[in-house]
Amino acid sequence: MNGNPITGAGYFFRGLSMLTDKRLRAFVILPLLANVGFFLLIGGAAWSFVDGLVQATEAALPDWLSFLTWLIAPLLWLTGGLATGYISTLIVLLLTSPLHALLSEKVEEQVTGQAVPALEGIGPALLAIPRGIFREIRKILYYIPLALFVLVISFIPGLQAFAPLLWFALGAWMMGLQFVDYPMDNHQMSFREVKVACASRRLSSLGFGGVVAFVAGIPLLNLVVIPAAVVGATLMWCEELRPRRHR
Q1: Mind listing the pLDDT tens digit for each residue in 106-159?
Q2: Do the Cβ atoms of 6 and 207 come closer than 8 Å?
């Protein structure tokens, strides 16, 4: 079997429920604070940009089309909010990936009762930031050709109707890879092995990644999506993806 999308989605909500666990609290707080800080920084810039765009749109509309402002303005604000959520999430993932690896390590040790020979403490995690950034760039380089392919599909008559579904599927797949990478990287497994593992349980990976992709685009809710997704992906690794030699 290739997994179950319902089970996959459930890992995220199980991860969300574990964020209050006092044994994980210290490893949740730092990524959460980073996410809040970047969200406020990017959100302030996005607010100014969208506000200027709304005003420019209102000024450009002739009087007889002014009623369109009631339609255009909410769409601009909604788009700006979703974009801010995605961008802030991406930046936090890029800059704080070693902290997420540390959270994943502690979750796996708690679930399995076995020590994970990965990052031991905040200091080594911070020293691993350059390596973590390089690994995040590797994921981006994998994503770009796939995104370009879907972009081309978006402009082909007859096929463009499938573009929204393809964009969501791509986002779900990438979010699955993104977060499953943390527990697998803790075991010195390559990004190629991450892709193979997720493909072996594709439906579970898409179910998990789909929920993460959806929540990541919702302002305020996206503040907790990163630690919840790290914990959820680690649970999926422990229960579905982990090879026998790690059990």
Answers
A1: 999 999 988 887 655 555 655 566 666 778 788 888 988 998 998 888 788 877
A2: yes
Tokens (6 digits) for 225? 């999506």
Rg (C-alpha) for the chain, rounded Å, is 20
- 3-state SS of the chain: helix, strand, coil percent to 5? 85, 0, 15
Retrieve residue 198's tokens.
């997720």
Give yes or no for a contact between 27 and 99, defined as CB atoms under 8 angstroms apart: yes
> Judging by beta carbons within 10 Å of its beta carbon (0-12, 13-18, 19+), is residue 6 exposed, middle or buried?
exposed
The answer to whether 19 and 49 have CB atoms below 8 angstroms apart is no
Rounded distance between C-alpha atoms, residue 67 and residue 164, angstroms: 28
